[in-house]
Description:
Blueprint: H1 8-11, H2 15-18, H3 21-29, E1 41-45, H4 62-72, E2 76-82, E3 85-90, H5 96-107, H6 109-119, H7 121-127, H8 136-144, H9 150-165
Antiparallel strand pairs: 1-3, 2-3
Amino acid sequence: MGRYRFTAKDLAPLKPLLNLPLARQVLEAAVPVKTFTKPPIVEELPLAVSVQGRKNPDGVPLDALLQEAQKLSPTATGIAVRRGKLLVTHSKPPEAAERLKLDAFFRDKSRLSGLVVARRPELRAAETPVASAGADAALVAVLRDPQTPDERWLTAFREYAVKHLIKE
Length: 168
């Protein structure tokens, strides 16, 4: 036996009851118990570098990957890494051109590694050796600058110590 489908004629006797002020308040305060949402569109892509985490602090940060993915595909809403695969969620299906751009970006190891350097200024500073900055005055300037990151400061101090403090 199938379910009965109520018609407007069946519900007509209830209209006076539903028009009462108390019934209106109850209906306005009602909250749906269950809402139906569409599942997100998930795309699995290869990743050429490792992601930053507890075991790998030098990896690419996920938020940097998401920002770049959103530049290439505005429909990208989230990124996760599961079992070594990169999962990109989209609000709606991305266009073919966007998919190709994302795929090419996540396969390009040099661009992804550039995100790490761009996000961490101490790595940018450590790329250029202190000796190329000039004479001893440059070393002293790096050592005295309170904004110098620790890793850069230690490199400069090591170079200064080898030149001036350590006697053979």
